[in-house]
Amino acid sequence: MDTSGLDKIPVINLSQDDATIVNELMTAFTIIGFATLVNHGVPQTLRQQTFSASELFFQLPLSQKLQYQYIDQASNRGYIRCGSEHHDDYLDEGKLAETDCKETMDIGWDSEEGYENRWPKELPDTTFKNVLLEYFETMDKLQLRLMKYVAMGLGLAPDYLVQRCNGHHENLRLLHYPSTNASGVRGNAHTDFGTLTLLVQDQVGGLKVQRTDGTWINVEPTENSIIVNVGDMLMRWSNDKLKATLHKVEAPPHHGGDIVPERYSIAFFCNANKDVELKCLDTCCNGNVTAKYPPINAHKYITQRLLETINTTPADSKEDSVPTNNKLISEVGNSPNNGTSTISDIICRVCHKQQAKYTCPRCERPYCSLDCYRNHNNSTDDGSNEISCTEEFYKTKVNALLSLERKEHELESNGILNRHYQQQFQGIDIATEDNDIAAEILAEEELYRLWSKLEELGEDANRAQLEKVIPPSLRKKLQYDLQQGTAQQLVLRDWFPWWRQQLVVGSKGTTKSKMEKVKRSEPEKSSKTLDERLLKLQRFELLSLGRQPSPLLVFNLMDILYSVCGTLRLYHGIANAIANEPLEAGSTLVTASAVLAKDARFSSLSEVLIHCTSAGKGHEGGAASWNVLVEDVAYLVESHRLVGRALLEAFDILTAARREVKRQEDVVDKRQRHQEQIKQLSALRKKIEFFLSWSQHPEIKTMLKETKIKDEILSWREQWMKENEPQKPISPSFEDVL
Ligand SMILES: O=C(O)CCC(=O)C(=O)O
Ligand SMILES: [Fe+2]
């Protein structure tokens, strides 16, 4: 329906009779997806107390707020600093993505098992935690009341949606938009993800809702009203009958001076229960109306949307870094050196800090350094937001090239498949054939030039075309480079060990090594479904014939984790390991763990750690030295979720390796050997499964949390390093990359 004539969003009085409310609400939701609620029953004092709580929190120094930082999208709780959220889907044509100019604090249902709200110790419960919990409950009641009306309006039983939205799968978000010297966007245009959002705003204003003709309606602040809007989840559920409308926050035009004041708002995002399958409601797809969206699990949907939006690792490793959005004047309570930097067109459009020196040949985005070049993503011209530049693209190209090379080599070498692709290049004697060229590693600029040539070819380039673009001499160089790992590092997406991400987030006073500078972490598939997968694990008692879990197993677990960390580092994460080198990754994983490879048993901390100091051999050419990996293990073992994730990734690597062996079985006549490998891999998977279910046993969870195992490992490591010659990393080049 055309809303170009609409100049304000409808106001609905909730003290009317139900039938009238249903009618008005449905009209508002089907036309514009927004309404202003009055007489809603939420006490004015509670609203004021909640705003005061929010102010108290955001006025804390940044260093303190960062102690309560958002950890991950599955938990969806904690503080997110300015510049961490982006909404690239709805950019105006030709506009570059900018992060939102707001900081937020997210609070979930306080009694949810496995997730904890990050209550700031600096603020008394009476003025913060208790107030927010009361607000949470009050808003929950209001949303359930509204869901009843929505169900009635959609022709469903009144409690149909209530029953599916009463699981406290909600998220109370405090928002603070710091003062700014620039007019323009403070929060980019977006639709909300959930069912309904209940929003209250202070008197500064700036919220705008899009009309069908692309213009915007101002949502003026009014005392004591609540704005409600439809989110994508409800839009999908209702098959687009109810509209999730684009909205954004802009700095108001002027406020008597150059500086636009800070703004506070409070959003209560409501979602369907975690286990709800979101599929078109029966009353919304009948007759000749078909469902527009495929069914999806509610929790998965939200987590996925959050992953696309929130970057949990912006400049967080550096407390005092300038926020990525250039418009900030100051973050309240922050040091004055968080000041403005006026942007000109030649400021790097990736980090927004340095002067831009180069322009991406593909998207013409100015950037300052190789790092920024690697990190820049850009929406395509048609706004479809595919990652069209950088590593994804190059990776596809190089993979295409590699697979051609592979095929050829396989034929030449009589179908030998079970080999690392780097080994395949040994068939070509680079050093003797073309010594001069091969000896030097392909310069980065040269690689980029090559990439852009490849790009011109398009996705379906055939071998002849590739050969034309990549002359034989250059191919040798590229192969050599791949062999050396240099090109691989260029083509692989930056990967940062996810367990270290938590380290940067959490622990104050930890010595920060070079590795801990945060890079973009891998939003891995497995992490999205981590909790679902952990919950599905067989109970430990069932696997171990009713025996109680032995706490001594933790030493064997450490040996496995040591190997998992080394493998993931070496292969730049699970996604890459599985997609490109499942067999090699599987074999690294197994050989570097004495428990997996030799069924070894460790019975004390020092026994396993001494083993680790020498187990680097298992990671020949590996990604990090033993002391880094031992530190990795220390950070993993204190959380059953992190242990669970690491083991699940080990499990996935073994599964992928097994799949690869099976695939080869079809091609190569080596059935018996392959059958044995498959058996071994299956047995190893079982072993990992055993450790998985052990690590999620309630007693073990508590043990991991409460014992000082992390500290013991770290102090053992310090001591060992003092007493023994500090060992050099096995492969410093990988460390440098990290
Ligand atoms: O701050 C506001 O007024 C709007 C916030 C918003 O739209 C959101 O967080 O989804
Ligand atoms: Fe929103």
Which helices and strands occur, and which strands form pairs?
Layout lengths: L10 E3 L4 H14 L2 E5 L5 H15 L3 H4 L12 E3 L22 E5 L21 H25 L6 H5 L5 E8 L6 E7 L5 E6 L5 E4 L5 E3 L7 E5 L1 H6 L9 E5 L11 E8 L6 E2 L17 E2 H12 L48 E2 L6 E2 L2 H6 L14 H23 L8 H4 L5 H4 L1 H5 L4 H14 L5 H7 L2 H13 L1 H6 L6 H9 L18 H4 L1 H6 L4 H4 L9 H18 L3 H7 L1 H10 L2 H5 L6 H11 L10 H12 L2 H28 L3 H25 L2 H9 L2 H15 L8 H6 L1
Parallel strand pairs: 1-2
Antiparallel strand pairs: 2-10, 3-4, 4-5, 5-12, 6-11, 7-10, 7-12, 8-9, 8-11, 13-14, 15-16
Helix pairs in contact: 1-4, 2-4, 21-23, 21-25, 21-26, 21-27, 22-23, 22-27, 23-27, 26-30, 27-28
CATH architecture of the largest domain: Sandwich
Largest sheet: 8 strands, mixed
Looking at the structure, what is the overall shape? globular
CATH topology of the largest domain: Jelly Rolls
Bound molecules: 2-oxoglutaric acid, fe (ii) ion
Gyration radius over CA: 28 Å
Structural class: alpha+beta
Count of individual domains: 4
* CA distance, first residue to last residue: 52 Å
> Which percent range fits the helix content?
40-55%
Mean pLDDT over the full residue set: 74
Approximately what portion of the residues adopt beta-strand conformation?
5-15%
Q: Tell me, what is the CATH class of the largest domain? A: Mainly Beta
Number of strands: 16
Count of runs of 4 or more consecutive helical residues: 31
As laid out across the biggest beta sheet, the strand order is 1-2-10-7-12-5-4-3
Extract low-pLDDT stretches: 91-97, 314-345, 378-442, 483-493, 502-528, 617-621, 726-738
- CATH level 4 superfamily of the largest domain: B-lactam Antibiotic, Isopenicillin N Synthase, Chain
GO molecular function: zinc ion binding
Protein name: 2-oxyglutarate/Fe(II) oxygenase
Keywords: Metal-binding, Zinc, Zinc-finger
